[in-house]
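Morning!

This is the sequence you dropped in the shared folder:
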Amino acid sequence: MNAETNPRSYQIIISTTFISLLGMPVIGPVLPVLQDVFTINNRDIGWMIMSSYTLPALFFIPFTGYLADRFGKKNILIPSLFLFAVSGSLISLAQNTDTVIVLRFIQGLGGSALLTLSPALVPDLFQGQERVKAMGYTGVTQGIGAGLLPMLGGLLASVTWYLPFLTAVIGLPIGLYLIIHLKNVRLGVLPKTGTYIRDAYENLVNKDVLQLCFFTFGYVFIGFGAFISYIPSYMNTTFNTGTILIGIIIATRTISGSICSAVLDKITTRFSSRTLLVFSFVLLMLGMSAVPLTGRIEAVVFLALAYGAGFGIVRPLIQVLLFEISPENLRATFSSANGTALRIAQTFSPLIAGLVVAGLGFQMLYYLAAGLSCLMVICCLLASPLLSEKAIMKKNN
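The structure's back. Tokens below.
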């Protein structure tokens, strides 16, 4: 199917990508408020609110990919979308941290499917260069959403703590739209479960697949732990910054991220994948190191821009590369593998970052994040030949 013959294709991709963001970016600025409302310390706020949401993905993303490849993405995506919307909205009624954690866990069940199946729809709906552009637009959506949603979250949190969680209700009308307009794509006769598992395993243990998933893990582990989860608390503790300003500063990443994603189809024809990944991790390293070295709020703005630019390249680029090397009947499974790497990073990075903050302070957290970014640069330079070639998209043109 091609976007030119079905103009709703972009609407479907953009809307599902946007909904997947309502579980994280809009919640970030509310963390300092939740700390006061529920008396949560710096060490625990990350895992209670963020890791409780990402933890389900460790168990359910691989299963989601399996079901989607066998029975069609629509049949899995829409129930997951409704689960995400309803459980997320119910958090607004929570009276204690236990209820928040349980509902965030349930919301994460739906969110894990959105994370996997939203990008996996791209190769079903688009062909050739349109596929690259579509992934670029998903990156733009992620960039704009990740930028504007913290601003919205900060504004809503300044009114009352539960309003950011109510944004999940937007998933209900989107789900109804998908019921009407999204076709369920299934490929031929379903293989036996044993055959499917064997084929999936043989393809996923490919060195190129593993290293691409590792780069996703590395970027998200560093950025999510040190930036997304703990920049709000750092700014509140260091500068006594209010939630609205926290949201605005975090939102500046949308500028660099959206620009990089929007020109993805152009820069991938001029620079190798290795070069783009190295550039992204170098930016992340510079941004992380600037925070403790200067101790100024301007350094946080620079970190937001650096993180946004790198994420705007890394996320869609790796997904496109995985599309190109994945068998047609395993696209959701490959997306699941990358989504699992992302969710592992999102689950454990807040916990580890919280332990570092509790034991060594915020400055050491950002020094360590800069050091890990440097290590990832070295890993990119040592990566296999796939990443040293000109982008696959150029070879296919």
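Headline: The domain at 8-396 is CATH 1.20.1250.20 (Growth Hormone; Chain: A;).

More detail when I'm at my desk.
O.
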